[in-house]
Fold this protein.
Amino acid sequence: MSQNIINTAYDSEEFRKLGKKVIDLLADYLKQVQRDEIQVNKYEEPVNQYEYWKGYADGNDPIKFYKDLLEKSMHIHHPKYMGHQVSAPVPLSAIGSMVSSLLNNGMAIYEMGAASSALEKIVTDKFCQKIGFQNGAGVITSGGSLANLTGLLTARNVKIPENIWNDGQVKNYGVLVSSESHYCVNRALRIMGFGDRGIQKVMVNEEFKMTRDGLEDAFANAEKQGIKIFALVANAPSTSTGKHEDLVEMAKFCEAKNLWLHVDAAHGGAAIYSKKYKNLLKGIELADSVVIDGHKMMLMPGLMTFLLFKDSKTSYRTFQQRAQYLWEDDQSEEWHNIGKRTLECTKFMASTKFYLCENYYGEQLFEAYVDKQYEITEKFAERLREHPAFQIATDPECNILCFRYYNPELNKEQLNQINKRVRQQILQENEYYIVQTLLDDRVFLRMTLMNHLSSVNILNELLERILNIINN
Ligand SMILES: *Cc1c(COP(=O)(O)O)cnc(C)c1O
């Protein structure tokens, strides 16, 4: 009997039958969602969601289960999805995830993912060329948080003369980090043993960007405390407000102080494909390491992140532990044993879907997408600038936009209450999905225009809805 269960679970015809049904279900879903025929979300309080699934009776019926799962999930392919920076994956890439999952090649060592390892070299080398790293190399990691940790580990091993990897934590080193950096940078540095003193905050200007003066101040302040700075993390762009650092200025500073420049382009790296917007990334080729998320602006499903190094050799300095049972010579630079350069041992075959999408649609897919999303955000910002009841936090540079209801007769606290109420009500209505952020203690509504079907019309309707909520 138990042998029968195993055979059934692996039956290829069963897989074919079910798989076709699931693809049909997803294709119907995609059509409905993209046409705005169902709501963007079905928000429920955590306890209700939990109770629903706890009492769920159809867990043994895959099609019913997937139908119910779709209904209870956030619809990122919906034109009124404008929340967090997660891509609506191109469907071809989702098929790629399924294929990779079935193959499940682990990739840590070459034999366990020969094709996907070669493809990883091909796509990362190409990306290096694209951003201007002539002798660069990279890896794909499971997400931007891990890529930032990996890049900073490399910076530490390359820049600090003491052998921290073998001897343990060395005191009195630190990294300059923008006060607007993603929280995962702070977390990565703490994991690496840099506490409060090792994370030296650089204050940003009113445009949410680091300046040369701010850098000099933070550097001098660190020196005064006896902390030797060895790296700088710059945003391209920052998460909350989507503002890009002046990377040329950042690189000059790093050159003058002999620092590693790590550019966190998790969100905005895709702009390198756009003739119109790649200027935002001017100077990125001067970085030592760059992080670009595939699952944000590159239309891939999560998780896949490019971690690219200017000097391919440094990419082999991240980890210095020995794992002789896997690799005969730990010191040699073997691109094909990718586990030598990633924290992951077993890893998803992410390179394959990116390779296919890039070749099937061409790079112009990324260009068209970036252009479209950035342009519509600018149009919406124009509309908001003209509107007396709204205020934008800062001029948008990409597809991230922060704005709030504003009335000069109300004080900060009153305005915060109103904007919070708006966001809460929008969340519960399920008609639109937007988020909120806090900037200088002021609550802003925050949107990232991730969906290619979002339009100025939809945005105008959203503004009307917000005003309605406020006036009722
Ligand atoms: C999203 C983001 C991250 C985190 O990436 P994950 O892939 O979500 O782990 C890091 N930095 C920036 C600037 C981001 O926008």
Notes: Confidence is low (pLDDT under 50) at residues 321-325. The chain is about 45% helix and 10% strand. The two ends are 64 Å apart (CA to CA).
